[in-house]
Amino acid sequence: MRLFDTHAHLHFPDFKDDLDTVLDRARAAGVRGMVTIGTDRETNAAVVVLAKRWPDVWATVGIHPHDAALASEADFEEMERLARNETRVVGLGEMGLDFFRNLSPPDAQQKVFRRQIDIARRVGKPVVVHCRDAHEDTLAILGEERAGETGGVMHCFSGDVAIARRCLDLGLYISLAGPVTYKNARALPEVARFVPEDRLVVETDCPYLPPTPHRGKRNEPAWVALTAEHVAGLRGADPEALSDALTANAAKLFRITLA
Ligand SMILES: [Zn+2]
Ligand SMILES: [Zn+2]
User: Which residues are within 5 Å of ligand 1 (an ion), measured at CB?
Assistant: First the structure.
């Protein structure tokens, strides 16, 4: 089984005591690559350190919509510097809109989102998009800022088939996380069947959102296997062949050559 976790937060304090063991379990489960995702200035520095330590960990730098109100000019400059100069930084984000929790005002979220797409286009790296209860605005901004030119992924996709189709039309990949395995998965099983095989990837978003049967625990990259297997079941696909295809998609999305 070859797997790739396109969205993890390995630098979070949840993993500080046993990250080596967590990564070994991931490798034993077949995970060939993981991308650890920055969310603010502090974590953007931390993800680069981690990605330099292991050949199978890469990083993205970004400002999460929750932190948008606190973003300063210096934060954008530092993010651009890392994205431009660090070869282990393979994308920008996570970035986007979160109108569910609204921890930053919507106008600050939109401004910070647009600014990061602009940086991504200028450094030529893909965007990792977070979207919660904000699909119309997110799609409008992605279109207006021509995110398709640099490519990217809708992480932890939470929309329906109609939204998925519009994301695909923009040239983005769709990433499914643990919630597709939940009993209350809503439209996600249908989305898992709908997205063409060459545009789909999977992720854990660990330490959050563990797939069934691990709900309530700390999530970790090894469990991306459970999400991939569940998606294969929904599609009536061979799990090993699908996992191989999803891994190849992830490498293409982040322009990574896997060993
Ligand atoms: Zn997110
Ligand atoms: Zn995340």
Answer: 94, 130
The two tokens of residue 202 are 């999977």
Distance CA 221, CA 24 (A): 10
Distance between CA atoms of 178 and 95, rounded to whole angstroms?
Answer: 20
Binned average pLDDT, 10 residues per bin, the chain of 259 residues: 97 98 98 98 97 98 96 97 98 97 94 98 97 97 96 98 98 98 96 98 98 98 98 98 98 94
Q: Which residues make Cβ contacts (< 8 Å) with residue 144, sequence separation at least 6? A: 114
The residue with tokens 């901004």 is: 141
How far is the C-alpha of 51 from the C-alpha of 57, rounded, in Å? Answer: 5
Q: Which ligand is nearest to the CA of 156?
A: 1
Token pair for residue 133?
Answer: 């209860």
Q: What is the pTM of this model?
A: 0.98
Q: What pLDDT shows up at residue 61?
A: 98
**How many Cβ atoms are within 10 Å of 215's Cβ, its own excluded?**
13
**Distance (Å) from CA 98 to ligand 1 centroid:** 9
Could you tell me if 197 and 216 are in contact, meaning their C-beta atoms sit under 8 angstroms apart? no
Looking at residue 147, its pLDDT comes to 96
**79-109 per-residue burial string, b: 16 or more CB within 10 A, e: under 16:** bbebbeebebbbbbbbbbbbbeeeebeeeeb
